[in-house]
Specification:
The chain is mainly alpha-helical and 141 residues long. It has 5 helices and 2 strands; from the N terminus they run H-H-E-H-H-E-H. Helix 1 packs parallel to helix 2. The protein is globular, with a radius of gyration of 17 Å.
């Protein structure tokens, strides 16, 4: 709602949403599923929440009959990198999206690109979509 009004989100806005995503990842990992999650986890702290939850509490499996078993979330961050100009040009072509192009600068200001020891790959958005997909699929092998 804030973004639709041109107001950037802050940590208080993002953290509950990231915790919900963590819970979904944890639930699906505990049931043996592989998950693709697309979101803008702009800061390392946000990616840490996706991986470990808000308080770094050890994840517990909630499946009946498996109480106390630790569920593991393996997270590969796919960092789609691009210049402000390229991404801005693409945003301007989108119609009906909740995020107005005017907020792009705030996203770049907030961005903390992934770095070691995070498990990530960096893929340029300058590549064709088929190339981007191929790089990601190769990394998942």
């Amino acid at each position: 709602m804030k973004m639709g009004k041109g107001i950037p989100l802050n940590d208080q806005d993002r953290i509950p949403w990231l915790c919900s995503l963590h819970d979904i990842l944890l639930r699906d990992a505990a049931s043996g599923q592989h998950v693709v999650l697309a979101c803008s986890a702009l800061k390392k702290a946000y990616r840490d929440i996706l991986l470990r939850g808000k308080d770094d509490a050890p994840p517990k499996c909630e499946e009946p009959g498996k109480e106390g078993k630790l569920a593991e979330v393996k997270l590969l961050v796919v960092y789609l990198s691009g210049s402000f100009e390229v991404i801005s040009g693409r945003l301007l072509k989108r119609k009906g999206h909740f995020m107005p192009p005017d907020l792009l600068q705030s996203q770049f200001d907030t961005l903390e690109p992934p770095s070691a020891p995070e498990n990530f790959i960096q893929v340029s958005v300058d590549k064709d979509l088929s190339e981007i997909i191929a790089v990601i699929m190769e990394a998942l092998q």
